[in-house]
């Protein structure tokens, strides 16, 4: 096995697949990077058993400048090999596997000799049929991920809640995540899905890593489902993730359909106010801010308090305020995450009671995105 390639291109592909490689694994060979060289090109593979990423460098791409002398496969220790590639002196690099699994990496006057492993011992990735594949714009998928993974649980005591529940039915995709304190739901129209039906739970950590690989030059992402795996094909990368087993709780009944108080704010303005209030709440053991709404006097006031440090009080600027007077307390970090997910939009907060969950939706496309936050009981 021997090839020469543009080092920056190789390094970018190496960085992509390295997202799936962990130094902590019960399968030692998975700490390595698999290189598979065929007449068609070079495939780099990284895996931690939960997610796997393949990056393909086509021999016909002028940008790659991939020159193949002989084909073959090898597994190299990922972290050490990555450090070598990053520090090579020239724009191109050559990799050659000699006797056994001895691997020689050269660039300019620099030459490294490292030991490789037999690629035949590397776990095989599943073959997932493309027959019912769906295509989603990469920017929309990335937005959907960022708006929902914020609500996944990090408590392994309820592993099903560490994932995002994805349902595709009747030409729509609905993604929901909840950690029992907050909920995020995003809906997309997928007319091309036709009568396809899928009901899967994808680990939040997998989706976070997928989002990081969706760069601006990727236009669309192809999604394929198998019995216990999902495959996302984005540009030259193939991203595999295992699916979580079990039944996701019915979250539709948690979302209120009526409200007694509503308030509309410009999201960035409210976010800045919440951030200021949380400067105080973060110094307190309970991390809570209080919001007082009085439609009669048309005032909205935000309070942050830390007994040891001090307090803050701020009059909020809103675009509308209606209904009954309300005084409610909540975790400001949940609200900040929710507001960051909507960008510069105008949002509406809808409340039913001081101790009942409240909703946040963008005033435009309100049926496409909703956040639900559970208030905090405080004692005066």
From TrEMBL:
InterPro entries: DNA_clamp_sf (IPR046938), DNA_polIII_beta (IPR001001), DNA_polIII_beta_C (IPR022635), DNA_polIII_beta_cen (IPR022637), DNA_polIII_beta_N (IPR022634). Its main location: cytoplasm. It comes from the Bacteria. The keyword NADP does not apply. Residues 1-126 form the DNA polymerase III beta sliding clamp N-terminal domain. GO terms for molecular function: DNA-directed DNA polymerase activity. It is found in: Cytoplasm. Residues 136-250 form the DNA polymerase III beta sliding clamp central domain. CDD domains: beta_clamp. The keyword Lyase does not apply. Pfam families: DNA_pol3_beta, DNA_pol3_beta_2, DNA_pol3_beta_3. Belongs to the beta sliding clamp family. Confers DNA tethering and processivity to DNA polymerases and other proteins. Acts as a clamp, forming a ring around DNA (a reaction catalyzed by the clamp-loading complex) which diffuses in an ATP-independent manner freely and bidirectionally along dsDNA. Initially characterized for its ability to contact the catalytic subunit of DNA polymerase III (Pol III), a complex, multichain enzyme responsible for most of the replicative synthesis in bacteria; Pol III exhibits 3'-5' exonuclease proofreading activity. Forms a ring-shaped head-to-tail homodimer around DNA. This is Beta sliding clamp. The gene is dnaN.
């Amino acid at each position: 096995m021997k090839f020469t390639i543009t080092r920056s291109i190789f390094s970018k592909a190496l960085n992509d697949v390295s997202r799936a490689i962990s130094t902590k694994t019960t399968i030692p060979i998975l700490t390595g990077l698999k290189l598979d060289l065929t007449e068609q090109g070079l495939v780099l593979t990284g895996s931690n058993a939960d997610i796997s990423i393949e990056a393909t460098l086509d021999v016909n791409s002028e940008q790659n400048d991939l020159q193949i002398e002989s084909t073959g496969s090898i597994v190299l220790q990922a972290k050490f090999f990555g450090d070598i590639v990053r520090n090579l002196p020239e724009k191109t690099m050559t990799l050659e596997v000699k006797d056994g699994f001895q691997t020689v990496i050269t660039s300019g006057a620099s030459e490294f000799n490292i030991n490789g492993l037999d690629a035949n011992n590397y776990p095989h990735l599943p073959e997932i049929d493309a027959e019912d594949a769906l295509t989603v714009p990469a920017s929309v998928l990335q937005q959907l991920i960022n708006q929902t993974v914020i609500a996944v649980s990090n408590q392994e005591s309820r592993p099903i809640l560490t994932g995002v529940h994805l349902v595709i039915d009747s030409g729509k995709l609905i993604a929901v995540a909840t950690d029992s304190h907050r909920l995020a739901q995003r809906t997309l129209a997928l007319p091309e899905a036709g009568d396809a039906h899928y009901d899967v739970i994808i680990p939040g950590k997998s989706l976070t890593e997928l989002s990081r690989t969706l760069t601006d030059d990727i236009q669309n992402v192809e999604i394929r489902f198998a019995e216990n795996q999902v495959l996302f094909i984005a540009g030259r990368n193939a991203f595999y993730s295992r699916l979580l087993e079990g039944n996701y709780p019915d979250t539709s009944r948690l979302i209120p359909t009526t409200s007694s108080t509503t308030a509309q704010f410009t999201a960035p303005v409210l976010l800045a106010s919440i951030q200021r209030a949380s400067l105080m709440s973060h110094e307190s053991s309970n991390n809570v801010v209080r919001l007082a709404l009085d439609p009669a006097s048309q005032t909205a006031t935000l309070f942050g308090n830390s007994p040891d440090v001090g307090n803050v009080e701020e009059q909020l600027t809103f675009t509308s305020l209606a209904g009954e007077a309300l005084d409610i307390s909540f975790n400001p970090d949940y609200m900040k995450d929710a507001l960051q997910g909507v960008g510069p939009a105008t949002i509406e907060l809808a409340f039913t009671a001081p101790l009942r969950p409240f909703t946040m939706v963008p005033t435009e496309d309100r049926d496409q995105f909703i956040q639900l936050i559970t208030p905090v009981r405080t004692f005066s």
